[in-house]
TrEMBL record:
Pfam families: AAA_lid_14, HTH_8, Response_reg, Sigma54_activ_2. GO terms for molecular function: ATP binding; sequence-specific DNA binding. InterPro entries: AAA_lid_NorR, CheY-like_superfamily, Homeodomain-like_sf, HTH_Fis, P-loop_NTPase, Sig_transdc_resp-reg_receiver, Sigma_54_int. PROSITE patterns: RESPONSE_REGULATORY (PS50110), SIGMA54_INTERACT_4 (PS50045). SUPFAM superfamilies: CheY-like, Homeodomain-like, P-loop containing nucleoside triphosphate hydrolases. The modification 4-aspartylphosphate is found at D52. This is Two-component system response regulator. Signal peptide: none annotated.
Amino acid sequence: MPKLYFVDDEPAIRDSVEQAMLIEGIDVVCFPNAIEALKKINVTQAGIVITDIHMPVMDGIQLTQQLLSHNPHFQVIVLTGHGDVQTAVSAMKAGAYDFLEKPFVVDALLTAVKKAADKLALVEENNLLRKELAMQNQVGPKLIGQSPSMQTLRRELITLDTKANPLLLFVGDLGTGKRITAQYTHDLHSHHTAELCPIAAFNLPRSDQATFDQFVLQLFRKHQGGTLYIHETEALTSDQWLWLLALKPTLLRENSCKTNATCIIIATTVVPTTITGELRRFNLLPLAQRTEDIGSLFKHFARGAASRYQLPPPVITEKEILRLIATHWSENIRQLRQHAELRVLTQVKQPSLDSDENEQNEENQFDVKIEEQQQSLSQRTDSFEQIILIEALHRHQGRLKEVQQELQVSRKTLYDKLRKHQLDKTDFKNR
């Protein structure tokens, strides 16, 4: 539930609404007048405002106009007198979302609040999608993939408040994209003239806390509105980790008086137990836990390599994607990118994954491409169905009950599909 505010100059009505919302488990902040409400409401974060129309000094329509001038996404519900149609119309023209006549029934107010919450959620969802699309279309690093983990990561980074979170922790195995994600975060939230400043952890002072603090703060102030990226953190001592944590209040004060916030991103493969829960943490999963992204990542890297080397992009078949998914990528995205570059430079299908295919000549490869171009819709559907099954079996290591729950199919349907595609659950155990 978004932030809910109630504005009315009658104490009895405020108390009644507060109690009704409390019973429903909804937090509400009440104000006796519009002036007080405007002082306390954070206009940068859209919420739901219920306001009486007739109040001294500033009425409900003026309050609605003021709120919407700061943030057009506020959902305002106005309370009018019984039968006061003209006032209700004026409020709606001013931008109010809904109106209720006094005296109102609590159930009607709750229904209006829930509808406003749904509307606000839809607005915020659309804003997130627009921002995400803009980031994916602009020049610079992109976070590729539609797996649930990647969708969540993009959303969390887009909505991140770097003023309130000056220290960020990116945790992931070797090659999971910590540097790219740091650049993506920088591009989202930093001033357009600021740069991402990489710092190897072994270059940070370790003699004493005062020297460490002075060094980090000088960099923080020098790169105001930008991002400091601390990498190779295996070199950080336990004292240095604690010194970084101790700097957080100072960094918050530094950002509070600046228009453009600065943040420090710490990239690590292992999180010391001493800092658990202390920093805003983002987990970057290995490819083995987001296999559904392998195909789109590989194609993205292949297109990029073809453009850089001024070569034609390779035709990547569905069978090739299946083999990529079945491969263990110990260095994750880094290794997959290297394989995509090799694929482009050699223009040989899967050169390092399948020795039999290394011996294919260009005529055989051409035949394969023609065969795929001539596939019917049914054949293509079957191929994608097979990919989905293989990905699910990999994720759940052949545990069919979990596969059935994820794909939301009956047991009989799942067994029929496995037989159709000649898939054996034992082939996916402990992989």
